[in-house]
Amino acid sequence: MVGTYWEWLRGKKPLVDAFLVGTVMLLSLPELVNGGSDRVAVWLVTAALLAPLIVRRMFPRTVFAAVALISFAQCVADFRIVPANIAVLIGVYTVAAGCTFRWGLASALVAEVGACLATVRYSYNGDGRKTTFLVLSVLVAGVWILGLHMRTRRAYLRSVEERAERLERERDAEVQMAMSAERARIARELHDVIAHNVSVIVVQADGASYAIDTDARRARQALETISSTGRLALAEMRRLLGVLRESDDVGVYAPQPGVAQLDDLVEQVRASGLAVTFEVDGTPASMSEGRQLTVFRIVQEALTNTLKHGGLRVSADVRLCYAGDAVVVRVVDDGRGAAAADDGRGHGLVGMRERAAVYGGSVRASPRPGGGFEVVARIPVREDGRMAG
Question: Its Gene Ontology molecular function terms (predicted)?
Answer without folding.
Answer: kinase activity
